[in-house]
Amino acid sequence: MDPSPRDELLQLIRDLGGQLAWQRDAGLLELPSQGALPAAAPPPAVAPPPAAATVVAAPTPVAPPMASPVASPVAPPAPAVISVLPAPVLVAAAPPGAVAAIAEVAVTAGAVLDRVGALRVIQDEVRGCRACKLAPTRTQTVFARGNPDARLCFIGEGPGADEDRTGLPFVGLAGQLLDRIIAAMRLTEEQVYIANIVKCRPPNNRVPDHEEMSACTPFLLRQLEVVKPEVIVALGKTATGFLLDSKGSMGSMRGRWHSWKGVPVMPTWHPSYVLRVRDDPKSTARAEVWTDMKLVLERLGLPVPAPRG
Ligand code: SF4
């Protein structure tokens, strides 16, 4: 028997919820506006609906995710689900379970958009900041990359030359190693959020001093309060020392759990250090980073990949 228009409407609702949840899990930060929906995704064929259903028959299903979410502009403020499926129609046509599922998806999508907006406000402040002596020598500020909805944050020290040039953190050799570590964890950039203690490059890549860190870390604290990661990885001594308010050595801190405001923190070697000692046959830094990342995966309830070959 052919499905009724009501059944088709409910299926459309389920499909929409699934698409939005998939986009969220894929790290999509921007919900497509109706104007951006591709013509190649037509609505399912629907028999002539009764008058009450014509309100929702016209919208096109939400498009699949698009390019990198990080570079996307802020989406229009209204979540797509609101404009596609007016609440009165949902209430009239869908059973309570379907309404609750759609409402949950809408809340999640709205929360992601809120985080994008909140981070944009902080980023705009960082761009105009001249609060410490690193401002005159920077090319540009370096805010963050990754997904504001990420469960896992990596916090490093500060931008280097490549980051100062591109405006993105961890894009030089150390960043490429970090990307390989993330890939070895079977994660992608869309599943993590990466930021630094200071947003401007210290000259000659020196360690930021106390005054610079004091001036800049309020930005990082606000970022973390918006992203709300479940786990933080502190890369190197500067990030570890700040987050844990500790002067302990990395050797004594890494490999075990600490806490920042109740969020588990795993200190590990900074990728720059791993690169510096890579030719030292006695160095165990690389293996220790992987040991630490396995603990992170376990803490997140994610599978730990088997060692290769
Ligand atoms: S390092 Fe931070 S506090 Fe200093 S000028 Fe840059 S953004 Fe401002």
The class by helix and strand makeup works out as alpha/beta
Q: Please write the string of helix (H) and strand (E) elements.
A: HHHHHEEHHEHEHHEEHH
Mean pLDDT: 79
Helical content (DSSP H or I, runs of 4+): 40-55%
Count of helix runs: 12
Tally of discrete structural domains: 2
Provide the CATH top-level class of the largest domain: Alpha Beta
Present as ligands are: iron/sulfur cluster
Keywords:
309 residues, alpha/beta, Uracil-DNA Glycosylase, subunit E, 2 domains, six-stranded mixed beta sheet, 12 helices, globular, binds iron/sulfur cluster
Protein architecture, described:
The chain has 309 residues and is an alpha/beta fold. It has two domains: 5-116, no CATH class; 134-299, Uracil-DNA Glycosylase, subunit E. It has twelve helices and six strands. It has helices spanning 5-25, 54-57, 80-84, 87-93, 96-127, 161-166, 173-184, 210-227, 236-244, 250-253, 271-276, 285-299; strands at residues 144-146, 152-156, 192-196, 231-235, 258-260, 263-268. A six-stranded mixed β-sheet has the order 1-3-2-4-6-5, with helices on both faces. Helix 1 (5-25) runs parallel beside helix 5 (96-127) and helix 5 packs antiparallel against helix 8. The structure holds iron/sulfur cluster. Iron/sulfur cluster binds at residues 126, 129-132, 134-135, 141, 198-200, 212, 215-216.
